[in-house]
Amino acid sequence: MIGVRAQxxxxxxDRSLPDPRPSSGQVLVRVRLAGICGTDRAVLQGxxxxxxxxxxxxxxxxxxxxxxxxxxxxxxxxxxTLACGTCDPCRRGRxxxxxxxxxxxxxxxxxxxxxxVSIPAANLVAVPPSVPDEAAVFAEPLAAAMRICEQxxxxxxxxxxxxxxxxxxxxxARVLAALGCRPVVAARHLGQQRRLEAAGISWIGEGExxxxxxxxxxxxxxSPGGFAEALRRVRPExxxxxxxxxxxxxxxxxxxxxxxxxxxxxxxxxxxxxxVEWLARGKIDPTDLIEARFPLTEAPAAFERAAxxxxxxxxLTC
Amino acid sequence: MIGVRAQxxxxxxDRSLPDPRPSSGQVLVRVRLAGICGTDRAVLQGxxxxxxxxxxxxxxxxxxxxxxxxxxxxxxxxxxTLACGTCDPCRRGRxxxxxxxxxxxxxxxxxxxxxxVSIPAANLVAVPPSVPDEAAVFAEPLAAAMRICEQxxxxxxxxxxxxxxxxxxxxxARVLAALGCRPVVAARHLGQQRRLEAAGISWIGEGExxxxxxxxxxxxxxSPGGFAEALRRVRPExxxxxxxxxxxxxxxxxxxxxxxxxxxxxxxxxxxxxxVEWLARGKIDPTDLIEARFPLTEAPAAFERAAxxxxxxxxLTC
Lengths: 318, 318
Description:
Structural class of chain A: alpha/beta
Helix content of chain A: 25-40%
Strand content of chain A: 25-35%
Oligomer: homodimer
Largest sheet of chain A: 7 strands, mixed
């Protein structure tokens, strides 16, 4: 089958990939739509040393379900972490932090930039008919944005700054707004600013936020400088939510963390079922965040487009 | 009067310091006992560019109180932060994070390694007769240890590691034990280990703690490597409490924070009134943590002793 592999730092189209075979407890999904994420680009640059089929954001249709035929024909999205079920975090109810985990398109298992993918039935979340593919494909990043609010208490009166106005920053701001908060987003690019305006969310230019002023700062830049910028803007005793995985160690002024008693919370994957529910109830409409759509066979061009300054979500039609 | 100034990286005895004069709202305290802290040594090494009289841990007796004669003769300890009362954090009830703050012996105002010191009456906490000077002088570091439990929830079943068995590490472990928790302390030196045993607290050798295993890690090493060590030991979704102020930026693997969803909480000054109350009720007896006692005139030798590997609290009799 056709798919996109990480090879020598570039996304390479491979027309002779072996067809995935669902192992026990797995289903085979025909991928309909997949999204390119900053993490995919980080993987290409060496993050985690992964070299299989890329991609983890997707929606598709179950076409084989050896263990549970009831799934066949169901439109689904999927949790990206494949847990072992037996390690300490798994036994303690935290399969997302499984010590032996594989992660779709990121660690140890082929991802979704392909015609078909095998994943555990336990990872599936059914997509209701009211949610179009173009919205469902955002379930994974929307869940990541919702995760922030599971980890940190946000009050409606909090001064909240979101740094970075790419897909995750935009979704984080929309989730916070849906919860009654009034975030401000530091947005560099015109297209990002216009989308925020259309969604009724305040923005300011990059670097214009007041220093030492925000109760909560959500770092969603995807770049190594994002954390230092967040530390500049947060108030003493404030909270920084850190989303960007960065390949190399970043110099951090730890005395600022101690003296100002800052809390830093690392955040990763979120609640997919809740994300699909929000999409179904129309609490969030992410479809204006689509920058462009490419057929899977044009994945290299899609990656180039996704890397352009200010680019929003680029989708692959599989 | 006699006092100890920071000068050229060393503590210098000065016999001709001007006598401090209490300004409005201040009292004059005759210092009886003062403690040398890791922060004093960091100040000598350039932290904050401070060059006045050193020292912030003390107990003493009020000898002049122009605005409120009722204080005269009272034995006291004192909060170390002098707040402006008008900035945003002050108005929001967080004077410890005053934007214009001065800090005894650390920032903008002379400290307590002297015969006498002027401080605001608002900073004083009276010491009950049942608390000897040798215990009262620990009120400031004890408050810092108690601060940790104001910021982070510790459950009795939590696996808790304290890294560093100096004064702050020892006090942190004792506070946690007093709250019903069962911390383990990573202790390098025999004297530290023996003190832990005497206090009924478990210890393990340096570097022997299991990796990725602890629900809570309290970093109290005072050294640049402490944070990375804490990150090695904490479990995914765990919490690291960071206490060490380090002068230079430290390289941090931010992706570990994000992927493992670690929370990092910077921690500084704590509740002095509660600390004195704990001392008065005998919940903590810190006096076995005294390493040695020197007269103020032998401060340089006292600093040398405090810098020795494994040294505990060194006191100055003023």
